[in-house]
């Protein structure tokens, strides 16, 4: 099962549209995970219409329209793994232990908020992934997203994809 992970799209505030390389990944993904801060409902509608399966949550910048359509925390079984998705996990210091306590029985936690890519494993085996942002790099050198493969209870081929500083193309 090929996964596409993203967060913090912030459209249309940080960019007018999703970058073309990210949109191209939609066609290859068996499941798309979005960890919140959409800002507009048009992006949610686009991903729902183009994704085979969408697992998504709202973030702190998402208003009532998105909060009415999305949960704060989502759970999904993907490729034999138990996933949880949430926007905020708090400060980086102590994140692994804090998330392992908050999400017992979860294999992979996808989160956002910081726009900083993150890939660590807690002592319990919980894998924590933050795909960064495909549209707002903040203090990072690149905008980013993640792809991975989930199969037979294993997560493999986790890859961080860097996007051009000024994404070209794409549509909403």
Automatic annotation (TrEMBL):
Annotated ranges, domain Calcineurin-like phosphoesterase: 1-151
Pfam families (UniProt xref): Metallophos_2
Superkingdom: Bacteria
Listed EC numbers: 3.1.4.-
UniProt cofactor(s): a divalent metal cation
Similarity field: Belongs to the metallophosphoesterase superfamily. YfcE family.
Official protein name in the record: Phosphoesterase
Record lineage: Bacteria, Bacillati, Actinomycetota, Actinomycetes, Kitasatosporales
